[in-house]
Amino acid sequence: MNVHELLNDYLNKEVVAKTGQPLPTLDEPLLDPEGGVVDSVTLWPLIVFVETHLGIKVEDIELVPENFQSLRALINYIESKKSESDS
Question: What pLDDT tens digit does each residue of the chain (87 aa) get?
């Protein structure tokens, strides 16, 4: 599975199934204050999932809305972190 598929699978099982909200598209808001499905309660488990399953460390300084505002932003953030660790 690629990063997008892993995130979609996680969000479907852990967020969408519990809230009944639709899975956001790549460019729809991901964060709750912007109308998305991830709120303050579900953000931490999402971060743990990303760290555990995608092999990156999300630093405190990187916990900014820009990295989590949409699936596309989150995927780009993860892929840039993976590139850094590969080099």
Answer: 899 999 999 999 998 888 888 999 999 999 988 888 999 899 999 999 999 999 999 999 999 999 999 999 999 999 999 888 776
Buried b (16+ CB within 10 A) or exposed e, 29-44: bbbbeeebbbeeebee
- Enumerate the domain spans of the chain: 3-86
Answer whether 46's CB lies under 8 Å from 38's CB: yes
Contact 50, 21 (CB under 8 A): no
CATH 1.10.1200.10 matches 3-86: yes
The CA distance from 2 to 15, in Å, is 19
Q: In this structure, what DSSP letter does residue 10 have?
A: H
